[in-house]
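Anyone up for a design puzzle?
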């Protein structure tokens, strides 16, 4: 069991799941090193929560390895007891494979996959020096199933899962004090769809508004509930943290119909998008 104490480094902390995690970890007595490329959002959050605990803010683009290395150096200097790393920063991309170009796929991979690898590489040497430490890598339910329109996102989130599961096994075999959980949220009511980029080949302007509307109708779990679920998963050292009934349903469906889950899932998603 990993106790929530010491200090946590969180990427993508200015919004959504990362922001809610910062608030909830702070409530449980954790100091915080908060990273995001949205510096104004980070500062506003620090003012909101930083009265009782030590909170440092770091403007970081997780796609840049040098910026993450500097973040780790500064975060560890500010919080020598740092024992939790949450690789959470992520983005989404609207469009089919033929509507997104190579540069857009690489943009997404550089954040959603390589950003998480850079974060792990930068913090792991320090985490290994702690008596007990935890890495939380945020994948998605789209790291378990892959709907159409998610070629880049699902590929990156499957990669996050493969990287994380292999690293967890390496740490376990080595008897390391560092534990690792991979998180697979279903729909969480955040700004991810509004913050997404649109594929260069998407010409119909209505598609973007429609896709945001569908996501927001289907995303039932609050960021606070997602954060509480992640904290419970850290405490119980759960290897895989599924969030939401939608994620649990899709996980089970994938086990029963690994090659043919899409049609029944499509019917279910359509109902959810209608608020049913
Ligand atoms: N919301 C969902 O339904 C959902 C579902 C499954 C997985 N996820 C994953 O959860 C994580 C958090 O997403 P969210 O829903 O809270 O989204 P969000 O858009 O509300 O928050 C993402 C945060 O990441 C930051 N960010 C983006 N690119 C960055 C970069 N290059 N460097 C530093 N920070 C960067 C953004 O500024 C933002 O503050 C992501 O990895 C996402 O893929 C979300």
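Challenge accepted. My sequence:
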């Amino acid at each position: 069991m990993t106790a929530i104490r010491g200090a946590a480094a969180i990427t993508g902390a200015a919004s959504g799941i990362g922001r809610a995690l910062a608030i909830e970890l702070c409530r449980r007595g954790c100091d915080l090193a908060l990273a995001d490329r949205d510096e104004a959002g980070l500062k506003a959050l620090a003012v909101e929560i930083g009265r009782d605990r030590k909170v440092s803010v770091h403007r970081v683009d997780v796609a840049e390895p040098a910026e993450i290395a500097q973040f780790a150096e500064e975060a560890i200097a500010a919080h020598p007891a740092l024992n939790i790393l949450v690789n959470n920063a992520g983005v989404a991309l609207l469009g089919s494979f033929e509507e997104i170009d190579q540069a857009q796929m690489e943009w997404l991979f550089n954040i959603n996959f390589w950003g998480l690898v850079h974060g792990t590489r930068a913090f792991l040497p320090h985490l290994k020096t702690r008596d007990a430490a935890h890495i939380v890598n945020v994948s998605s339910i789209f790291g378990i199933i892959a709907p159409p329109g998610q070629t880049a996102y699902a590929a990156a989130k499957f990669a996050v899962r493969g990287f994380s599961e292999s690293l967890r096994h390496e740490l376990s075999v080595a008897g390391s004090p560092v534990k690792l959980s991979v998180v697979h949220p279903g729909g969480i009511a955040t700004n991810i769809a509004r913050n997404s980029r649109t594929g260069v080949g998407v010409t119909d302007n209505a598609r973007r508004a429609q896709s945001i509307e569908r996501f927001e109708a289907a995303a039932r779990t609050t960021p606070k509930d997602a954060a509480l679920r992640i904290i419970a998963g850290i405490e119980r050292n759960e290897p895989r943290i599924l969030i939401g009934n939608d994620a649990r349903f899709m996980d089970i469906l994938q086990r029963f119909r690994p090659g043919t889950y899409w049609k029944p899932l499509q019917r279910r998603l359509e109902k959810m998008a209608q608020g049913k």
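A detail worth pointing out: Residues 11-12, 14-18, 36-38, 41, 60-63, 88-91, 111, 138, 140, 185, 187-188, 190-192, 195, 219 surround nicotinamide-adenine-dinucleotide (CB under 6 Å).
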